[in-house]
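Table S2 (continued). Query chain:
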Amino acid sequence: MSLLRRFAFAIRAKLNALLNRTSDPVAELDYSYEQMRDELQDVTRGIADVTTQKKRLEIHRNRLRSNVEKHDTQARAALQEGRDDLARRALEKKQVNVSQITELTGQIDDLQETQDRLVGKRAELSSQIEQFRTKKETMKARYQAAEASARVSEAFTGAGDTMADVHRSIERATERTEQMEARAAALEELEASGQLESVLDEGDSIDQELDRLSSERAVENELATLRAEMDEREAVEEAA
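Corresponding output:
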């Protein structure tokens, strides 16, 4: 892969990573799912609060019903004792409690309707959450598979560029190898035909001829020097 291609590939990879960090569909789906779960918890807490209030009113109503029975018993006992005034007071308290029971029953019924409605909404919301969860997991699987496929494609693209460079290197190496093999075959052929030795001998004879000429030149120079010395000596003797 050339340097420019490597640089472009690195930049593309970094941009993809940056985009994935800023917009991650998987994280967005998980966040939406958690928000829906929080809403379901809010509905559940609301149902618990309504149920608690209903139970509190039911307990109070039961206590009033006990008072009604007690006042009724008191009124009967007062009549047996000839105390109409006490019986009347007991019945008055009984009527107040009966009125309160009626009012509480209406409130309890309203709370029951609210509770039933919230329970129905909770069941509907829970069903929607489960459907969303199924879709979320499906989309996550598809996204992750697409992401993995994209990484494989990018890796394959990079590997393709690298393989192209490798093929060119192999071609150059093959060419040089073939040249060396051809040279070796040519030398083997010359050696088999006896021409290789003659070529080498020819090179040796040239070296020998050059050495001979150099030696002869040195001898001639030394001979000239000796003659010059002898001529100089003879000239000196004649002069004496």
